[in-house]
């Protein structure tokens, strides 16, 4: 009897029923076993699809990330040879079928080549695997109910319906129905999460049949900001991060492309920017690198939004002197938040011409893939204009109208080139700029900023540093001399200490503290990865699986609609542990979130007490 009770408990614990990440809006699952193999017949809108294992564009990615290496396999002793991987045609014209085909190729790659045996998620010493030879999934029928439009691939906030319905019946027939190809990609990610590798090798199974899922996101904007100026990241790192975002149903990668420290973006019309501004001539993004990154994102339902921060955070003095103030000034504390300072002059026709040239080169290259362009605007200090020979003042009442004129020009140009401007909150809340109501405002300072901006009628993104700054809590990067600087800064914490644990991210929702009539203006959130002390060696462990905690709140909501209560860490942690294992198997090397012991036992055996 005891044995049986234990068995049932183990089954309940081991039940992968709750294993999907992020949690679908509605899901019902059974406990039946179904196997899947490469003989599954796939159709898309009635047409047979031959799926081909996916290999990332070019060769980058393959060697760097284990698990993405595709090989031949045997099923029932029959050799299945994979032909060339499916790489969708390159270029800014997207075809729904190619998008779906790429998604299928990655989905089956994830199941058959990058699966894992979930021993670390099951009780020690218990044989949790199904007996081989059971029923197989015979068909996967994919139906897209509406046509994609050009804006599907460069969507304005909320313009794409990402919903999907996924059913797998006990007889082994699977159907995935969605109004957009993006919805199909989201559904395929869920489908891939149903299956585990069997330790027998060439067998893959789910123990959840029958499955019935109806799913859609709560917030349309679910992003991650990556700063590629403080440290440079290879194109393969960025594409790898896009893949990881898609695994968590996130849909925006915000590239903070330039800052005072480096300008890694090649602008053919202004060649000195990258020639003088990149850390090294090998560390910049060519137009084709950038297009490749954006295109890669479109194929995964991830919009890549580029930011050129201004008027502060601009370090172009060595390339084009005379356009900016305060670059390299020392002491720097009066002019900026970190050296080497630098900001565009506010009332200068050469600056306007520079911006026009920059935007006319860059923005037409972005607009096939993105609806937005971020013009920055954080941490701009009035003191910069003290050093401007034409102004020599830090009087905000003099500078405010000049900044307004600057923004009117910059945003006018963004719109003229077919994109929608985004800004950091300070332009509106500290500098009292009046911007178009199309503008998306990104907050980071916390407090009541979201409420205020939503009230002013802007669409708002939450990047509160109290929750969403993934770089916090690892210590100060500036160096201090002996004596008072050493004493005053001991023990050298960073400004946004402490670390934001996944549980803190998970406790927060962008609409927290915002009155309910304004929720419609809160379009989502972005995690921030500022990279003063982050490079390729730590990128995955800094972001994953932590970012997934915010991704679940943005997709599924803080409140579980089924129970009407806040989602519990006790429900989330085993699923997030599983998501980490899944991501590890796919080559994303996220950090552990608990002891290995905790992931094998009942969650109550790892529950903290109420004291
Ligand atoms: C599977 O589900 C069925 C129907 O709910 C139930 O009767 C059966 O006991 C379950 N089997 C196991 C092994 O949990
Ligand atoms: C998305 O499409 C689904 C299925 O057609 C529909 O039920 C849902 O209302 C749509 N969502 C939005 C926000 O339009
Ligand atoms: C502006 O610079 C002056 C020195 O010129 C300094 O005294 C003042 O504190 C600075 N203001 C700010 C806000 O940093
Ligand atoms: C800004 O520039 C305009 C045009 O050159 C000039 O007329 C105006 O005086 C300048 N404003 C300030 C505050 O210097
Ligand atoms: C913005 O407006 C507030 C409130 O009227 C005022 O205190 C502040 O000085 C203004 N800031 C600027 C830069 O004009
Ligand atoms: C749910 O979480 C929010 C924070 O997102 C918190 O303000 C609220 O009090 C929680 N509700 C309950 C019932 O615990």
Summarize the structure in short:
With 611 residues, the chain is α/β, with parallel strands linked by helices. It folds into two domains: 2-215, Chitobiase/beta-hexosaminidase domain 2-like (Chitobiase, domain 2, 2-Layer Sandwich), CATH 3.30.379.10; 221-556, Alpha-Beta Barrel (TIM Barrel).
Characterization of the model:
The protein has 611 residues and is α/β, with parallel strands linked by helices. The chain folds into 2 domains: 214 residues, Chitobiase/beta-hexosaminidase domain 2-like (Chitobiase, domain 2, 2-Layer Sandwich); 336 residues, Alpha-Beta Barrel (TIM Barrel), CATH 3.20.20. It has 16 helices and 22 strands. Strands 1, 2, 3, 6, 7, 8, 9 and 10 form an 8-stranded mixed β-sheet that branches. A hairpin with a 6-residue loop joins strand 9 and strand 10. It starts with a helix and ends in an 11-residue tail after the last helix. The N terminus is likely disordered. One 2-acetamido-2-deoxy-beta-D-glucopyranose binds next to loops. Its EC number is 3.2.1.52. One of its GO terms (biological process) is carbohydrate metabolic process. Keywords: Glycoprotein, Glycosidase, Hydrolase, Signal.
